[in-house]
Amino acid sequence: MVLSVISFVSVTLFAQSNKSFLSAKDSDPVKMGWMQGFPPPKDKIVNAEDGSFFNFPALRWSVANMRQLMPTVEVSRGLKAPSPLPYQLDPNIDTLQFLPWGQKNRMTWEASLWENYTDGIIILHKGQVVYERYFGALNEDKVHAVMSLTKSFTGTLAAILVAEGVLDENKLVSFYVPELKNSAFGDATVRQVMDMTTALQYSEEYANPQSEIWAFSAAGNPLPKPKDYKGPVGYYAYLETVKRDGEHGRSFGYKTVNADALGWIISKATGKSVPTLLSEKIWSKIGMEQSAYYQVDALGTAFAGGGFNAGLRDLARFGELILNKGKWNGRQIIPAAAIADIEKGGSKEAFAKSGHPLLKGWSYRDMWWITENKHGAFTARGVYGQTIYIDPVAEMVIVRLASQPVADNSNNDPWSLPAYSALANYLMSKK
Amino acid sequence: MVLSVISFVSVTLFAQSNKSFLSAKDSDPVKMGWMQGFPPPKDKIVNAEDGSFFNFPALRWSVANMRQLMPTVEVSRGLKAPSPLPYQLDPNIDTLQFLPWGQKNRMTWEASLWENYTDGIIILHKGQVVYERYFGALNEDKVHAVMSLTKSFTGTLAAILVAEGVLDENKLVSFYVPELKNSAFGDATVRQVMDMTTALQYSEEYANPQSEIWAFSAAGNPLPKPKDYKGPVGYYAYLETVKRDGEHGRSFGYKTVNADALGWIISKATGKSVPTLLSEKIWSKIGMEQSAYYQVDALGTAFAGGGFNAGLRDLARFGELILNKGKWNGRQIIPAAAIADIEKGGSKEAFAKSGHPLLKGWSYRDMWWITENKHGAFTARGVYGQTIYIDPVAEMVIVRLASQPVADNSNNDPWSLPAYSALANYLMSKK
């Protein structure tokens, strides 16, 4: 298995049970002693060379230490003082009960955190921190790999640029990236890429060694290529090779390469890299506590589909910025129109064709998952349990970072999504 | 050439002229376009694989972007607000004149910055910033490789631990690191390692492919080892192989491995990694603006001999902390005894045997270079022109980060050290 692979796993894959793995408590990476000692014992060394850093339970250490395993590029918070989050902790949340999907017995909020191998979780209600906990290798002053949450950052940046008039969503991709003219992306619109309704011959099915995911991953791997390697070098070069399969605009297809193509598009449109854009538009603007970072390929290109790493509280600040339609402390930081575009959702019809049995009635817009529930909740999702969940009606933002044994979020959705709904109802019931 | 090599170059090597290279202005890395574009043109790509990232002029980009080329580990600034430096800029410094060593004509301060391929320079006088400039790839919100300045951080940490009674400088190295018992370090004292008076069969002579520097570098290189590689993996494993050559304590010998052995010693003595120690003792304590980082080997060991990267102003804050004998804003952050130990200097006799023709009468203590001049100035030094220069009498701290074409500081000392003395006199003459 090669570097930076697993972050692309589609949520439709690996519908496996956690039950055959060590429990969250038993797999605590600090307790297990990964990379502890001078030097660490041989069986506790995690490195990127053979890809085993992404295997559970070593993964539980890796998610909080990605920069130690590979090259990265900073997303600067700037040099100003952080903007403190107000606290109003609610001790009753841990005992809040909910019914997990498909289960007969109710479960407490706290128990769900262990069920989901949570590394960090924070809840904002009306802009105040009502709950915050850290587990495993994460701390308040560390960052965590957010996997495919990264896509929602790429999509938000694109939505901002559209709202600013810098990016035309109706233009063909080849208008911005001539290099993609002969690829599947060439005759797709920017909007189709933003909503992943492109028709691509591209599979993220891991079980199949012929899946395109492996070639994409090999191209993006920043380690030196094997001598007999003949494939493309870097994410961009790979994107040029993607072939069309069907007609664009018909069906949602969750494929990581769309996010990387979008990263390329917004970089060409602005002359700035994705990390620079994210720093300039957001990360340096809302009092982040920590700089964040992206994994990069051998050409320095940030992995816009899955390579972002950030602090728990800072992700909550970002969620709050989105909840507040782009305002932070009363100042409009990003255009309200960009957030409105996310919230209006995508085509439910296109989404329904994509086969996400647990996410019935949802849609996808600007690289966010739209629940289309009564609260208009929408969410950024990444494998192994990464989530930003925004409920506008309950004025609630949840960020959860995790390191589940199994990539596919269908392994935690039944213990997460109903918990979030129960929490929203509880918070709304408070005076 | 392999990764993270050049940072070990001894200051006695490469007494070459800059004259055959592009000028500082012509080699400006932004103007040259290194790593610019999506993707960058082939001839402007800098990567670590073949080591060419350390070749001038690409080096001028690399020094400000090391994390993009290799794995790193953070030195956290913590989460508090930065402590602002007061400003009292002095516009007359640029025109200050001095006579470079061995030259007939005087030169202005500003001209010396170009002569020395300066990337960033800051001067504090009585705690106020009187001068600050950035060039090339460096900015106020970026960090820069400090090369062997790293050693002075390792030495300062050791001096702190000695002052705190955590580390006994008279103990043998093998007391703290049993793994080093059969190496040259085994029967050296901690103090001998701190002052580099160990007798080691270890050459940093680059021209000779048999030099031990190459094996050390190969061991520390975090990239996957070639299939036929039989050597040690990681800095620690290399240190175990170093053989003794002569008697410890007789002569100063500037050898990077001492700093890495010291990093190991202080980690064993405290149970904490060097980056963690630096964060806990200093980086999170004096209002740093940016987190810093170390390059690491494949086992996650920070390169305590040359792998540190930090921001210009933060290095100035560190210099000011040392100048103020461990106090910051009136609070004692690190023991005054540790600074006093640095300032008292090392054995001039031991130093004289080491052959640094430009540094006559100097000594070396706690991995700092002691000028032994009338002002009691002392300095941290790294190849390609990195400097922290502290003049206690003039109450002056200078930090210069640079990317000279040639590693050896004898290429910039003649245009630097007399400029610093002239500046000290000028500042002292001000009311």
| Principal-axis shape of chain A | globular
Share of residues in helices of chain A: 25-40%
Count the E strands of chain A.
Answer: 17
Unreliable segments of 5+ consecutive residues of chain A: 1-16
Largest sheet of chain A: 7 strands, antiparallel
Number of helices of chain A: 14
| DSSP strand content of chain A | 5-15%
Question: Quaternary status of these chains?
Answer: homodimer
Main structural class of chain A: alpha+beta
Cα distance spanning the termini of chain A: 52 Å
How large, in whole angstroms, is the Cα Rg of chain A? 20 Å
Q: Round the mean pLDDT of chain A to the nearest integer and report it.
A: 94
Summarize the largest interface: chains and residue counts.
A-B, 44 and 44 residues
**Order of neighbouring strands in the sheet with most strands of chain A:** 5-4-17-16-15-14-13
Topology:
The structure is a homodimer of 431-residue chains.
Chain A: H1 29-32, H2 59-62, E1 72-75, E2 97-98, E3 107-108, H3 109-115, E4 118-125, E5 128-134, E6 144-145, H4 149-163, H5 173-176, H6 190-194, E7 200-201, H7 212-220, H8 235-239, E8 243-244, H9 256-270, H10 274-283, E9 292-295, E10 308-310, H11 312-323, E11 327-328, E12 331-332, H12 336-343, H13 348-352, E13 363-365, E14 368-370, E15 378-382, E16 386-391, E17 396-402, H14 413-429
Antiparallel strand pairs in A: 1-9, 2-3, 4-5, 4-17, 6-10, 7-8, 9-10, 11-12, 13-14, 14-15, 15-16, 16-17
Helix pairs in contact in A: 4-9, 4-12
